[in-house]
Design a protein that fits this description.
There is one protein chain. The chain is α/β, with parallel strands linked by helices. The protein folds into two domains: about 280 residues, Rossmann fold (3-Layer(aba) Sandwich), CATH 3.40.50.300; about 140 residues, no CATH class. The chain is built from 17 helices and ten strands. An eight-stranded mixed beta sheet has the order 5-6-4-7-3-8-9-10, with helices on both faces. Helix 15 packs across helix 16. The longest helix is centred in the C-terminal third of the chain and has 65 residues. The chain is elongated, with a radius of gyration of 34 Å. Bound molecules: adenosine-5'-triphosphate (ATP) and magnesium ion.
Length: about 450
């Protein structure tokens, strides 16, 4: 059912996050959704302003995060219900705490406004909602949100709910255009999506089950996800970023890269939510990329001139040298095997006649020739294999650099998610970029 909140005669979308249990990632996803939305194109040249609402009166995670550092004391949503007065709503501007910014200074981001759930002192906050009339809670919620939208020209509302279905959660589901139920892939969490929908409908029969969409978060194995897809529609899935990128590949900035992967998935989620009705609210994929990923994509054509690529190209010549040495070695061994060898060990120990001396020197020549041939063969083999390895690596990196030049950051992000082999290639590209003057300048600018 479309909500009734409007701005400039256009419906303002409400996107809410529910969960099948605690710790599934509701608040983290809600926060990044709200912050990334600020970088969407919007309609009037400015990024859209966003209203983030914390309705989790139990954990108050976002309230703690955005409010307690500012020492602000504005009315919470729970206060509005307990005062029965939505006009007291105060959405606090928390844009200064947003870390995600567009790349260039010309871009105008939207502002982030925040309504807290309950104050720390409000220890029985959950009772306020439990005792209230559901219809009245809905009126208070819609009126308060509309007032905040009017006061701050808000283009989108994002709501973080608690894991259990309480009055606020049920009403939020009812007014949402996208009610997203975050769950884990494990059965104990995954099988509870329908229960959550049923519980909401029990409080607000107006809520239609079809509106609750399943988002699997922190999944570990893609094949397990495929099995789950056979049992119910999965709207979106976000991997467990620690599993995607583990410590073994040795990236310096692993936390930033993991966050970039997470943001990339959140941007994809927003694309699904808004693509038909609110395309202006889809942030550009580039917003998820850290600065040095963009730097790497920008200098990609120069990577072919990096020291490592030069070494690899030189290394390819080892193939021919190795081949030559091996041929000489094989030739030498064949020749030495045809040389006569009729001197026995006992004969060598006694006095030798003239003919015997000649035969003995023949013997030592043969040994020396075969020894030298073996050495040639050995060195040749080592050089051949080094040359072939250099050839293979050079080809692989050339393909990687060409893909990076063409597809830029998107290609890098997809490689990071693919697997260990691809991550090693990205790691190598990072390492290669370090020797270039452009990278030194970039690093200086970052400091
Ligand atoms: N895809 C992910 N990969 C790795 N870590 C994640 C992912 N999503 C969330 N997390 C981490 O999981 C933890 C729990 O997330 P969060 O607090 O957002 O869950 P929640 O559902 O809001 O919990 P609660 O029910 O307590 O409110 C956080 O430390 C968060 O950083
Ligand atoms: Mg939370």
């Amino acid at each position: 059912m479309p909500n009734e909140i409007v701005r400039n005669n256009r419906q303002v979308p409400v996107i809410s996050f529910f969960g099948t249990r605690g710790g599934v990632g509701k608040s983290t996803i809600a926060q990044y959704v709200a912050e990334l939305l600020l970088s969407a194109p919007g309609t009037d040249g400015n990024g859209p302003s966003v209203l983030l609402v914390d309705l989790d009166v139990h954990h108050r995670q976002l309230t703690r995060q955005y409010m307690e550092s500012t020492f602000a004391n504005s009315p919470t949503f729970n206060d509005l219900v307990s005062l029965d007065d939505p006009s007291k709503v105060c959405a606090l501007n928390v844009t200064a705490q947003v870390k995600i910014q567009k790349g260039t200074s010309d871009d105008r981001n939207g502002e982030l406004y925040f309504i807290p759930s309950a104050s720390r002192e409000d220890v029985d906050a959950y009772l306020t909602g439990a005792k209230a009339d559901p219809g009245r809670v809905k009126e208070i919620m819609v009126t308060a949100l509309q007032q905040a939208v009017d006061s701050h020209q808000v283009s989108c509302i994002v709501i973080d709910c608690t894991a259990i279905i309480d009055m606020y959660t049920a009403v939020a589901a009812e007014i949402s255009d996208a009610a997203l139920c975050i769950t884990l892939a494990e059965p104990a969490a995954f099988d509870r999506v329908d229960d959550q929908s049923a519980r909401i409908s029990a409080i607000r029969p107006q809520f239609s089950d079809g509106f609750m969409k399943t988002v699997v978060n922190k999944y570990l194995r893609a094949d397990r996800l495929d099995d789950l897809k056979k049992t119910r529609d999965i709207y979106h899935a976000i991997p467990f970023t620690k599993e995607v990128l583990d410590e073994t590949e040795g990236f310096d900035n692993i936390d930033e890269l993991r966050l970039a992967i997470f943001k990339d998935y959140v941007v994809q989620l927003l694309e699904k939510v808004f693509r038909f009705q609110w395309p202006e609210l889809i942030p550009p994929p580039s917003i998820a990329f850290p600065a040095y990923i963009t730097h790497l994509a920008t200098i990609a054509p120069r990577l072919k001139n990096s020291r490592w690529m030069k070494i690899l190209r030189a290394g390819i010549h080892l193939t021919w040298i190795g081949l030559l040495l091996s041929v000489i070695g094989i030739g030498g061994l064949t020749y030495s095997s045809r040389m006569p060898s009729n001197v026995t060990e006992s004969e060598r120990t006694r006095d030798l006649s003239y003919t015997e001396v000649a035969a003995y020197s023949y013997f030592t020549d043969r040994t020396a020739t075969s020894n030298a041939s073996i050495l040639f063969l050995l060195f040749g083999g080592v050089m051949l294999s080094a040359g072939l390895t250099a050839r293979k690596r050079n080809a692989l990196l050339n393909v990687a650099i060409d893909s990076l030049v063409q597809e830029r950051e998107i290609w890098l992000m997809r490689q990071l998610e693919k697997g260990k082999k691809e991550q090693r290639t990205v790691m190598r590209l990072f390492e290669m970029s370090k020797g270039l003057p452009e990278t030194n300048q970039f690093l200086e600018r970052q400091i």
